[in-house]
């Protein structure tokens, strides 16, 4: 996640499923990113066969906690499809 323009500190949550937020089903949580003002943050990196797993064809969701930013943010998600 990259914030290219000053817009204050923001929190963004990433989780599996279509719940309203990460607390709907904490077992589906991946990470909560703390985005600094004019900065960037990244989630943890997991080795193969480790880390959170979604169900087959499960939706990956993300949302802002609290007040959403007013500037553009770039979000990049990398994942591997393991069967």
What would you say this structure looks like, in words?
The chain is mainly β and 83 residues long. It has one domain. The chain is built from no helices and 5 strands. The chain has a 3-stranded antiparallel sheet with strand order 3-2-4, with no helix packed on it. The termini are far apart. The model has no long low-confidence stretch (mean pLDDT 83).
- Helix-and-strand structural type: mainly beta
- Uncertain regions: pLDDT < 50 for 5+ in a row? none
Shape: globular
Strand order of the largest sheet: 3-2-4
Q: Sheet with the most strands?
A: 3 strands, antiparallel
Percent range of helical residues? under 10%
Q: Strand fraction band? A: 25-35%
How many separate domains? 1
Distance between the termini: 27 Å
Average pLDDT across residues? 83
Total of DSSP H or I helical runs spanning 4+ residues: 0
Which value, in Å, is the CA radius of gyration?
A: 13 Å
Report the count of strand segments. Answer: 5
N-to-C order of helices and strands: EEEEE
In short:
The protein has strands spanning 2-3, 10-16, 29-35, 60-65, 73-74.
Secondary-structure map with pairings?
Blueprint: E1 2-3, E2 10-16, E3 29-35, E4 60-65, E5 73-74
Antiparallel strand pairs: 1-5, 2-3, 2-4
């Amino acid at each position: 996640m990259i914030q290219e323009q000053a817009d204050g500190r923001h929190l963004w949550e990433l989780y599996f499923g279509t719940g309203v937020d990460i607390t709907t089903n904490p077992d589906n949580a991946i990470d909560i990113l703390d985005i600094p003002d004019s900065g960037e943050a990244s989630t943890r990196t997991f080795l193969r066969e480790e880390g959170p797993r979604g169900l087959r064809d499960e939706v990956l969701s993300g949302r802002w906690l609290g007040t959403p930013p007013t500037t553009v943010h770039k979000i990049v998600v990398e994942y591997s499809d393991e069967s």
